[in-house]
Amino acid sequence: MDEEGHQKMTEVVVVQVHGNEGNFFPDGYSDGHFDKPLRCFGCGIGWVSFILGFAFPPLWYFATFLYYENQYLNDPYLKDPRERPGLAASAIAALICSVSLLISGMIVLMCW
Q: What is the pLDDT along the chain (112 residues), one digit of tens a residue?
């Protein structure tokens, strides 16, 4: 009882999880395929392309190609869902780079 004379009630919830053969992961994630570290220093090709793209911007376009074409390629590594964020970041960087180059080129042509 608390100071006012009311009883405190607590609720206990018991959750039982029933998996098939001890597998509690969604389909496709249970076979240990994605337990391996990613290539390129464990970061994945997308993030390495994103970082190195600041020094060599064509890497962003290469990663953009991989981002859009990975569903058609037969390389199981590129179908790894852990690669998608890095490849998407490189695609966005390539878009920003393209727009900035286009605007810069238009300004140079107008002032010339």
A: 566 766 777 788 776 665 555 555 555 555 566 667 677 777 778 888 888 999 988 988 888 888 887 666 666 555 677 778 888 899 999 999 999 999 999 999 988 7
Q: Left, alpha or beta for 46 (phi > 0: left; psi -120 to 50: alpha)?
A: alpha
Beta bridge partners of 23: 20
What's the 3-state SS for 28-67?
A: CCCCCHHHCCCCCCCCCHHHHHHHHCCCCCHHHHHHHHHH
Largest interatomic CA distance in the chain: 86
Closest CA relative to residue 83, chosen from 40, 28, 45: 45
Residue 50: Cβ within 10 Å count: 24
The residues facing 20 across adjacent strands are 23
Q: How far apart, in whole angstroms, are the C-alpha atoms of residue 49 and residue 103?
A: 24
Sequence-separated (6 or more) residues with CB below 8 Å from residue 50: 60, 63, 86, 89, 90, 93
